[in-house]
Design a protein that fits this description.
By secondary structure, chain A is mostly beta strands. Chain A has strands at 5-7, 10-13, 19-24, 31-37, 44-50, 53-56, 65-68, 75-79, 88-95, 104-105, 109-113. In chain A, strands 2, 4, 5, 6, 9, 10 and 11 form a 7-stranded mixed beta sheet that branches. Chain B has 111 residues and is an all-beta fold. Helices cover 0% and strands 50% of the residues of chain B. In chain B, the strands form 3 sheets. In chain B, strands 2, 5, 6, 10, 11 and 12 form a 6-stranded mixed beta sheet that branches. A 4-stranded antiparallel beta sheet of chain B has the order 3-9-8-7, with no helix packed on it. In chain B, a hairpin with a 5-residue loop joins strand 5 and strand 6 (44-50). Chain B is globular, with a radius of gyration of 13 Å. Classes of the chains: A mainly beta (114), B mainly beta (111). The A-B interface holds A 3-4, 33, 40-45, 48, 56, 91, 93, 98-99, 101-108 and B 4, 32, 34, 36, 41-46, 49, 51, 89, 91, 93, 95-96, 98-99, 101-104.
Chain lengths: 114, 111
Amino acid sequence: EAGVVQSPRYKIIEKKQPVAFWCNPISGHNTLYWYLQNLGQGPELLIRYENEEAVDDSQLPKDRFSAERLKGVDSTLKIQPAELGDSAVYLCASSLGPSAHEQFFGPGTRLTVL
Amino acid sequence: GDSVTQMEGPVTLSEEAFLTINCTYTATGYPSLFWYVQYPGEGLQLLLKATKADDKGSNKGFEATYRKETTSFHLEKGSVQVSDSAVYFCALRSGNTPLVFGKGTRLSVIA
C-alpha cells in the first residue's frame, strides 16, 4: 500500500511568487495534517483536517497561507505571496482518526524562496 | 504549554556502540510519548511509543521508558549499526492536541 504522497519534492521560487503543495494521504485516513519544519527544528502543526473540515488551523498564517481538502481526500497547501522566511520543509501526515497514536508522514516538500 | 527538550546533536558513534538520546518533557496531564525517526530523504516514521507511566516502548532494538517522576523518555540502543544513522525526534501528545516535537538529534554511525 502506498504511503503518504507529496509533490513536488523540491521547489525553488522567487519571493512574492505563489506556490502550492499537494498531498495524497493513505487511503482510508480521515485525518490529514500539514506541518512546517524549519532547519534544525522539529515539525510544527499548521493545520489539521477531519475529512474535509479544518478543525485546527490556529497556527496557519492566514494572511498568506491557505489550505483546502475539498473532497476529504487529497489536500493542497498554498502560499501567496511567498516570503524569504517561508523557506522550509512542508510535511503532510495522515492518520486513521484524531485520536490515533500513529501519524504517517510523507517525504515533505523542500521550499526555497530566493 | 507542552514542550519537549532533547539533547542536541550531532551524535557520532562507532558501530556497535551504546546509544542514549536524552528527552525530557513538560506537559499538563499525562501525555503519550513518542520517538520518530527520519532517515535521509524519507518522511518521519514512528519508531516507538508509550502511553502511560512506566510503559516501555521498543522496536528494532531501540527502547525508551516513560518515566513520570523524572518527566523523561530517553531513547537507548545497545549496539548501533550504520543503518541507524538518521535524525531522531522525541514527541508528546496530550489527548487530541497536536503532536509537540523536540528539535531532533542527528545520529551518525561510522563503520
